[in-house]
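Sequence and structure are kept together here, with a separate record for every protein. A complete record is shown below as an example:
=====
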Amino acid sequence: MTGHTGPMTSSASRSHRTTGQARPVHPVYPAWQPPSASRAANSGPLPAPEPGFTPDVIVVGHGLSGLVATYEASRAGKKVLVVEQENEKNLGGQAFWSLGGLFLVDTPEQRRIGISDSLELAWRDWLGSAGFDRPEDHWPRQWARAYVEFAAGEKRQYLHDLGLRIIPTVGWAERGGGDVAGHGNSVPRFHVTWGTGPEVVRVFEEPVLDAARAGLVRFAVRHRVDEVIVEDGRAVGVRGATLVPCDLDRGVASSREESGRFEFRAGAVLLSSGGIGGNPDLVRKYWPTDRLGDAPEHLILGVPEHVDGRVLEISETAGAHLINRDRMWHYTEGVTHYAPIWPSHAIRIIPGPSTLWLDANGDRMPVPLFPGFHTTASIEAIRRAGQDYSWFILDSAIAGKEFLLSGSEQNPELTDKSLKKFASKAGSGLPPSIAEFAERGVDWVVADTIEELVAGLNETLREGEPELDVEKVREFVLAMDGQMDNPFAKDAQVQAIHNSRRVLTDKLTRLAKPHRLLKDSGPGKGSAAGSGGPLIGVKVHLMTRKTLGGIETTLDSQCLTPEGEVFPGLYAAGEAAGFGGGGVHGYNALEGTFLGGCIFSGMKAGRAMAREV
């Protein structure tokens, strides 16, 4: 075996590998101790509201959008009380776990590597992807235009002034379905934060904690909001239950045992509590069967279970208008985490274009649904095939160059800001995080021959799932191998590979050189792995992630009622507002827009609340 680093697991050891169990809720709560105060780990203790603290603004949820809103309101001199169900270690929410990808338009990073982008091109791409077609898309469309202008203008400088830096490479996410008028990015726009998600959190966390030291910000953690207080048609505060203290790690399922009740009042209330991705029952309830097929029976979760959609229901009870609840963004490339933190913990593979992709029946995914091109259309194809998973077929050389795992923990060279480690990614071999998943992940098989590979993949099947046919897989691999000897090809995926290699940084750091997967490719042959090292197969699952619909809001993040009237005193931001307006993305996302959507909507909400109160 060549072309990889670290131990590799063959199909022969498959029977000895089992799915890890999520770390349990602590059965007994010890006396509370302050967690370690590691920088950008968002640990506490955070200052609690003392008697007499009278906030101007209440922020429900201390994820990224709530943190940004708190930053904006406090820098305007307003007192802010942040109310959060989880403990201090979860400050920053899902942003902390992220790769730190940001959708930016016409940047120096793009221009430096020869990418010509513009506001006009990005807006055309956004409209083609969003497909706004409903009366309730009035505010989402306005939010979309404002956000694309932000991404092409203020956004980069706004973050730069806070201390955030981005790496010089630019990724090409969601390349679309081959239609110029349809979904997809025409050019690479995915800018990765130097320091990944923790750094995105840090640049807002630090000024918020400075404001806390100045007496402007307080945190009520382990306070679960159960009700928005409405008096004379205006939101004036929140009520709920205090939960028993805990010192669990970030993301671990926490106790819901109540220890008391609370009520807080303020001049404005912001709902920034996230979406429904940690609640598979709600995902299935709102699953768009008309567009994506039947709701999947098996889902693995890309977010912790506290991302449960409770506050969305609470907002609706209070009188806010929820729209586009059937619009959601889940991934096709989820793999089971070998050391899960939350139940059904999944990590997403961000693939390059060279991986071969088969549906559950062993048929090629419909052209042009190649890895990383069109997420929602790929979900539909997987569901129409009758299952909730599909197969990646590749080798070590492709995995080493083209596989990224979407998360701060899985990319230590970026998260730790290590230039040496980052530069090493341009070399050969599997990065340690990929090698560890290949060794320990229950969805991964590594083999020297295609017969061993298919046999190992079949061992991952649940009862009733169709077995792969080795001859069918072999034939497809041989056919694709025959397209690899020239810098041109008739196959659309191979054309896409060559097109991608025209982006300089992709060619150097992100793409494997086109090559055959099998050493003995030819008529009547095709068994042993070729020059790219051992063969790798991955069972990839549907994985929950983002809510694209939510609370309808104005461009100032003010919640609206079902009658279209402003709900006085009530605001929403982030995923709870569908990242703005109740659905800024429409039906599809262009990627890098979730962190940016939290930042933009939180910024708008914080500034608007500061003006109101």
